[in-house]
Amino acid sequence: MHDMRIVMGMPVTVDIVDAVGPSLIDDIFDYFHGVDQRFSLYKDDSEISAFNLGEVRVHELSHDMKEVFSLAEITKDQSHGFFDMRKADGQVDPSGIVKGWAIRNAAHIIAARGAKNFYVDAGGDIQAEGKNADGENWRVGIRSPFNDQDVIKVVSLSGQGIATSGTYVRGQHIYNPHAASKEITDIVSLSVIGPDVLEADRFATAAFAMGQDGIYFIEEKLGFEGYMVNAKGIATMTTGFGAYVIS
What we know:
single chain; alpha+beta; T-fold; eight-stranded antiparallel sheet; globular
C-alpha cells in the first residue's frame, strides 16, 4: 500500500510492503491530522495555541504535549542549549521536534499492526524499516538546497531515520538561542541519520542552530551521521556517513 496526502502543511507519504488491513493507511493519516490539530501554531484552537495564550496550564496539558515538552528539555540539555523551544518572546514552539516524534509514533502504529517493511515520510523526514518491494534497503534522496529538483545524495536505510534541517524551504525559521538576533547564513542544509527519525530530527535541528560547527556535534554522537551543505554549496560529511551512500 502506498499513499501520499497533504497533512500538517506538507506531503506525508506512507508505503507499506507487507499485507495489512486496508484501514491502516487511513488510521495513520488520521493520526497525523490529530497531531496537527494539537500542535499547530497556525490553528487558534490547537492545544499549543491555548497554552501560549495562557488558557491551558502545564498540569492541564495532554500526555502527548507533556511528552514533547520533556523531549525538548532533554534535547536542550544534550545540545548545550542550541535547541530551545522557548522563544525570545516567551512563546513555546516545539515544532523542531514534533515532526520526528509524530513520524516515529506512526511507525510504531504500523509495526504494531504486523508490518515489518515500510517507510513513513513527512516533509522529507523519514523512518525506514525492513526492505522495499524489491527486497532491498530503502533508498532515500537528499535534495539540493539550491534546486529542489536535484538530488545530491542517495542513501540506503533500513531500521534508521533521517531528518534534514535547513533554511532553503521555510527561510530563517531556525535560530541560535545563544545569538537569537543573528540569522544563520553560513549553512543551508544539514541532514542527520540516526537510530530513529525522532533522534535524527531533534539533533538535526540543534546541529543546524550551531551553524558550521553543527557537523562536528553530530560527528561526536555515537550512532549518528551527518551531511552538511554550506552557503557556498560545499558539502561536509561525518566520517561514517559514506557507509550509507549509494550515489
